[in-house]
């Protein structure tokens, strides 16, 4: 993003009558790479690692927070390497699952916030602007019909919500 910002500043400094086509294309390629990189990032990076020390009569496990570079938790168990291993892995797995869910939820919140920030009310077309805000919808998923099959009911029904409506619970339920 830093390179992109530098190129944009360079482009703004160029006289409006003459734009260096090479710099414009370069800026667009960098922007496309940055956006693609962010869109393709699907996993949350693991925050913890497990350090194992197994001696003849007990096991010592340390759960280490990589971001803070600190030991968060110790497990000591006599003759119980399996128990320590199971507990440490449960903590890490549950925490990573929580972080992944939190990241998805933050993405939903950001999507709605961006839409609302991008909405512009047009004074010249107040009714059109109101319709855009109140009536625009989007399909977020499909659900199965409640009616029995073969009775003329549709098998799958589209789930729609207002484009600018928050509807976090519905969006979460049908998140892909």
| Strand/helix succession | HHEEEHHEEH
Cα-based radius of gyration, to the nearest Å: 26 Å
Count of alpha and pi helical runs:
5
- Strand sequence of the main sheet, in spatial order? 1-2-3
Our count of domains comes out at 3
Distance between termini?
A: 28 Å
Strand content: 15-25%
Overall spatial form: flat
Query: How much helix is in the residues?
Result: 40-55%
Report mean pLDDT, rounded to a whole number.
76
Q: Could you say which structural class the secondary elements and strand pairing correspond to?
A: alpha+beta
Number of strands: 5
Q: What summary fits the major beta sheet?
A: 3 strands, antiparallel
Low-confidence stretches: none
The gist of it:
With 176 residues, this protein is of the alpha+beta class. It has helices at residues 2-13, 21-40, 81-118, 126-135, 168-173; strands at 48-54, 58-65, 70-78, 137-144, 156-162. The protein is flat, with a radius of gyration of 26 Å.
Describe this structure as you would to a colleague:
With about 180 residues, the chain is of the alpha+beta class. It has three domains: about 1-40; about 50-115; about 120-175, no CATH class. The chain has five helices and five strands. It has helices at about 1-15, 20-40, 80-120, 125-135, 170-175; strands at about 50-55, 60-65, 70-80, 135-145, 155-160. The chain has a three-stranded antiparallel beta sheet, covered by helices on one side. Strands 4-5 form a two-stranded antiparallel ribbon. A hairpin with a 3-residue loop joins strand 1 (about 50-55) and strand 2. The protein is flat and about 80 Å long.
């Amino acid at each position: 993003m830093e390179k992109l910002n530098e190129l944009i500043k360079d482009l703004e400094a160029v006289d409006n009558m003459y734009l260096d086509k090479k710099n414009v294309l370069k800026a667009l390629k960098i922007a496309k790479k940055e956006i693609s990189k962010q869109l393709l990032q699907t996993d949350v990076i693991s925050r913890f690692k497990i350090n194992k020390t197994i001696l003849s009569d007990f096991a010592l496990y340390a759960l280490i927070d990589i971001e803070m570079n600190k030991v968060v938790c110790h497990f000591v168990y006599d003759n119980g390497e399996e128990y320590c291993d199971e507990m440490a892995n449960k903590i890490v797995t549950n925490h990573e699952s929580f972080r992944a869910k939190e990241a998805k939820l933050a993405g939903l919140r950001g999507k709605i916030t961006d839409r609302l920030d991008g909405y512009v009310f047009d004074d010249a077309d107040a009714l059109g602007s109101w319709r855009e805000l109140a009536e625009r919808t989007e399909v977020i998923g499909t659900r199965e019909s409640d009616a029995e099959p073969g009775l003329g009911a549709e098998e799958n029904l589209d789930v729609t919500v207002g484009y600018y409506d928050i509807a976090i619970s519905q969006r979460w339920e049908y998140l892909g």
